[in-house]
TrEMBL record:
Its EC number is 2.7.13.3. It comes from Streptosporangium saharense. The chain crosses the membrane at residues 30-50, 57-78, 84-113, 120-137, 143-165. This is histidine kinase. Pfam families: HisKA_3 (PF07730). SUPFAM superfamilies: ATPase domain of HSP90 chaperone/DNA topoisomerase II/histidine kinase (SSF55874).
Amino acid sequence: MTEYRWLLPAVLHGDLVGERSPTRRSARDWGVDIVVFVVAALMGLAAALAMHPVSSLPPAVVLADQVIGAAACALLWLRRRWPVGLALVMVPAALASGTAAGAVAVALFTVAVHRPFRTVAVVTGLHIAVLAPQLWWRPDPEVSFWGAMAFSVLSYLLLVMWGMFVRARRQLVLSLRERAERAEVEAELRVERARHLERERIAREMHDVLAHRLSLLSVHAGALEYRPDIPRDDLVRTAGVIRTGAHQALQDLREVIGVLRLGGEETTPDRPQPTLADLEGLVEESRTAGMEVTLDMRVAEPGRAPAALGRNVYRITQEGLTNARKHATAARVDVTVRGGPGDGLTVEIGNPTTAGQAIPGSGTGLIGLTERAELVGGRLAYGVDDQGRFRLNAWLPWAA
């Protein structure tokens, strides 16, 4: 019996291999249990009636047989809490009582449904082991011993196979349900991640596009604030520049929204996007705002650069000029663009770090530029060199 010692703690606690029987019955469970009890009682009654005419046992033994059978049927109400314990109790009941056959079948079926194969094999083996003394104790006069033995063993095996099939089907349904729930959760996580990435993309584009325009507006508005006595013509011109800058900022905002709605780098937005050939216009805007900017364009034909490449170079230069305007207002800014097909494009922006009054910044623009460059397979570096100048250097690939 040493190989069955592992069963004892599970029987005492009503639990095996991580499965715990329910402590509360639902309305459906009550209905099933009532039907099972009635079927087991009818089977026991039929066995008692069939045994009565041919029984040669004393009346006291027959009465004890019926009492044990009734008790076995009553114990079926415990099959959900202690299925293995009930099946083990049914072993001596099956040996002592023929009317307990229905309760024994229900207990064995319950174990097959609720417990793994190892447990079912042990319990079924114990019940088969008591068949021989049971049939010898109560032989059927119309059937031979071996015939009755074969029929009983086959009945037990079919009952157990049916129970294991029910268990496998329940596990399959549970697995499919868990898989569906997990897929639903994963889909929600993917949607949430997509929303998060879209928010980051919108924030990056908004910063790259609007920071330049708003910094220009800040410079012109600051001039009006500190010089309220400027001539009327200069005042009108400055106000016109502010109005034009605000209008351009709105146009840039519409462009960004158009690109984001289309959601692809290869699509064409509603409005034309900036290209490499538009760098001169960007530099001229900064010069109009009072900055000293030099542009050294060393690309033979800027108009032949791919649209995505030209747009990224434009945004990087735009952010570099915006940072220079914030942190080195009166300093000279040098912009150099060089390269070509096969070699890639290199953008260098440099300016001193000690001149002018800085507009507060968070540094997220440079982080966004680094991500923009890395997304297209390029690289970007920035920092202060040995001469005290802040330098921004970016390289973007240009296919041959």
